[in-house]
Design a protein that fits this description.
about 110 residues; heme binding; oxidoreductase activity, acting on paired donors, with incorporation or reduction of molecular oxygen; mainly alpha; Cyt_P450_sf; about 0% strand; monooxygenase activity
Length: about 110
């Protein structure tokens, strides 16, 4: 049974599917940025985003970038941001539910907008 479950998990691993999609899009962006950088050289305008920061890390060769490593780092950041957002939203709803005296005022505020 364990062998069967492991085969199913390997074949239908949704995390790998999403990772492959992310790698594909990152690879396209990295290739485009490298082409633009080579074409415009000194006139090239550096992108001010996380992907550019990950491309310019000290231990990464700018012409031999492993997009799977970047995809893994981005996936961790995305997961952490989803987790922190959902936790903060849950805490806000719990705080609101524990103070029913604010409900009428909030309801009136939303209906008058």
């Amino acid at each position: 049974l364990q062998d069967y479950i492991n085969r199913i998990l390997i074949v239908f691993n949704l995390a790998d599917k999403h990772r492959n999609i992310l790698v594909k899009h990152i690879n396209e962006q990295v290739d485009k940025r490298l082409q633009d950088r080579n074409m415009y050289q000194d006139l090239w305008k550096r992108h001010n985003d996380l992907l550019q920061e990950l491309n310019e890390e000290k231990n990464i060769d700018p012409y031999n970038i492993d997009c799977t490593v970047i995809a893994d780092k981005l996936a961790i950041i995305i997961y952490a941001s989803i987790l922190s957002t959902s936790r903060s939203s849950t805490n806000a709803f719990i705080d609101l539910a524990s103070r029913p005296e604010y409900m009428q005022e909030l309801y009136e505020t939303t209906t008058h907008c």
